[in-house]
Amino acid sequence: MPAGGGLAEAVRRVGDRWSFLVVESLLGGERRFGEIQEAVHGVASNVLSSRLKQLEAEGLLVSQPYSDRPVRFTYELTQTGAELAGALRMLASWGARTSGAGSADRHDSCGSELDVRWWCASCGEVVEPGHVEVVWV
Q1: For residue 114, pLDDT beyond 90
Q2: Is residue 107 part of a domain?
């Protein structure tokens, strides 16, 4: 896979800021259209509708009708969609740190800023930047 292949695929599937914000709004569980629109400040109804359809087509969320007349839906993340939570938290933390708009996530016990690190799930070793071999399968 070419450089940036994984990132390019993620951007292709999720797409834009509205989609990230829609996913974030659904991390707490099922919501209706109006509830999502309230959570995602500034999104137009037609844009939200389009993003919900796109995210469903990508398998990141599912919709269930709760009313026949008019047809209305609830939306919920799939397991694949919920897997975006970690990436969204890292992006939000980065955005807060670099914009000065707020602080990064902090440890409840001591108040220290949290540091995100890669680690090997097999041996538990922390993997430092530059010591990662990316193998695409």
Answers
A1: no
A2: no
What is d(CA 62, CA 91) in angstroms, rounded to the nearest whole number? 24
How would DSSP label each residue in 67-103?
A: EETTEEEEEEE-HHHHTTHHHHHHHHHHHHHHHSSS-
Domains contained in the chain, number: 1
Q: Which structural domain range is residue 13 located in?
A: 1-101+113-137
d(CA 131, CA 37): 42
Q: pTM of the prediction?
A: 0.76
Which neighbouring-strand residues pair with 65? 73
Distance of CA 26 to the CA centre of its chain: 9
Q: How far apart are CA 98 and CA 106, in angstroms?
A: 16
CATH number at 83 reads 1.10.10.10
